[in-house]
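Hi P.,

Sorry for the delay on this. The queue was packed all week, but I finally got your sequence through. Input first:
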Amino acid sequence: MPPTIQMPRLPLSAPHLQYNYFRLGLTRLFEALRGPHFTLLAYGPGAAADLAAVAWAGQGAPLKRVAIDAGPGAFSDLCLADAAGSFREGYGVDQSVLLLIRPDGYIATFAVHDRVATIENFAARVTAQA
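Then the structure:
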């Protein structure tokens, strides 16, 4: 069976799930999303490898990079382990995906294929409107 992603219509508030933070123990995803920044969530090793490749314009809100189930060596501000599968279940994913979360905690967009280009194109459109 091919991998699927069943994301509902956007914008949707990002689920606030609990994870194991590699350095500090348990944390809630809400803590990583909170702040004046956009958050780029990478689920899985394929998407985590894309975190370093995504260019961010640097205008307006900064970008925080969060890797989930990518291992401690991922290029990110925060690495989380989803041992209970709550991200996979809560977000309805079973493959590598990048999710861009707005500063207000809502999902702006997500990318399963052509992940880097999809996120950068979306960011360019949003920046152009500002």
